[in-house]
Specification:
Helices cover 31% and strands 14% of the residues. With 271 residues, it is an alpha/beta fold. The protein has a single domain, classed as Aminopeptidase (3-Layer(aba) Sandwich), CATH 3.40.630.40. The radius of gyration is 18 Å and the shape is globular. The protein starts with a helix and ends with a helix.
Length: 271
């Protein structure tokens, strides 16, 4: 089953790009319990595998799930603890859209047995693969960088106030990577003028960044949450979803490439 849950392309560089919210598949038994609106998958991190397609040219490994975050959220802890206490959060098995409306038909919200089934079927294989790949990269290179890529609509009042900056770098407040790496990435953001940006703002990094960022074990993790508007028309972020906008992507790609290259440069200099 694991091979059908995710795809992993192994690279040669000490960099793993994880894209946990790009999946769009929903098994029939799950789909039948969802409200009709959910089938448009409006909270997907659309097109990110395409946006990060250049990462393979840098030698990065790329891990991509097949199934939607509506089935299970791969960036939440297995015990379902809230990522951002005091704020609205979606769960390990989400029960609400990003606007707070219910995802499930009345009486069809998953029970604990169903949550456990999904955790073992979808969540655990992805994280096992992630852990194994990081171990492989550390064994090859002495250290590894985990880049956790995300995107979201810039205005989601149920989740955060106001408008999100275009590029949101998260390092768990500096705990998930070396201070010098955090500084280098922040410098890349500061050197460009195309996109607004923040480091460790509203999105400081989810479970993946916090769990696997272990600088003392030579694994450094960073999350980048991007506004969908940096590469597509976010007004159409549901089936039929808007395609990638070539003009927007042409402005975004050089910044993303510089960020990923900065991680590799830091890794080489840190040896």
């Amino acid at each position: 089953m694991s091979e059908a849950v995710f795809s992993l392309e192994r690279g040669t560089a000490p960099l793993l790009v994880s894209l946990p919210h790009v999946g769009t598949a929903i098994a029939d038994d799950v789909a039948s319990a969802l409200v009709p609106r959910a089938h448009a998958l409006e909270d997907t991190d659309w097109h990110l595998a395409e946006v990060y397609g250049f990462a393979r040219e840098l030698g990065a490994s790329v891990l991509v799930p097949r199934f939607s975050r509506y089935v299970i959220d791969l960036n939440r802890p297995p015990e379902n603890a809230p990522m951002y206490p005091g704020a609205n959060n979606t769960e390990l098995v989400p029960t609400r859209f990003f606007d707070g409306d219910p995802l499930y038909r009345e009486g069809r919200v998953p029970d604990e047995a169903e949550i456990e089934r999904r955790r073992e079927t979808y969540w655990r294989p992805y994280h096992d693969a992630l852990e194994r790949e990081l171990r492989r990269l550390v064994a090859l290179h002495g250290r590894a960088i985990l880049w956790d890529g995300h995107s979201i609509q810039a205005e989601v009042p149920w989740l955060f106030d106001g408008r999100l900056p275009d590029l949101n770098l998260g390092t768990a407040g500096g705990a998930s990577c070396a201070p010098a790496l955090r500084a280098d990435l922040t410098d890349v953001l500061a050197a460009q003028s195309s996109f607004s940006h923040v480091t460790d703002g509203r999105f400081k990094g989810g479970y993946i960044t916090r769990r696997y960022g272990r600088p003392h074990d030579n694994v450094h993790a960073v999350q980048l949450e991007m506004a969908l508007s940096t590469y597509m028309d976010e007004r159409y972020a549901a089936f039929p979803v808007a395609p990638v906008d070539p003009m927007r992507l042409a402005h975004l790609r050089p910044v993303l490439r510089s960020l990923l290259q900065a991680t590799l440069d830091w890794c080489a200099d840190a040896r």
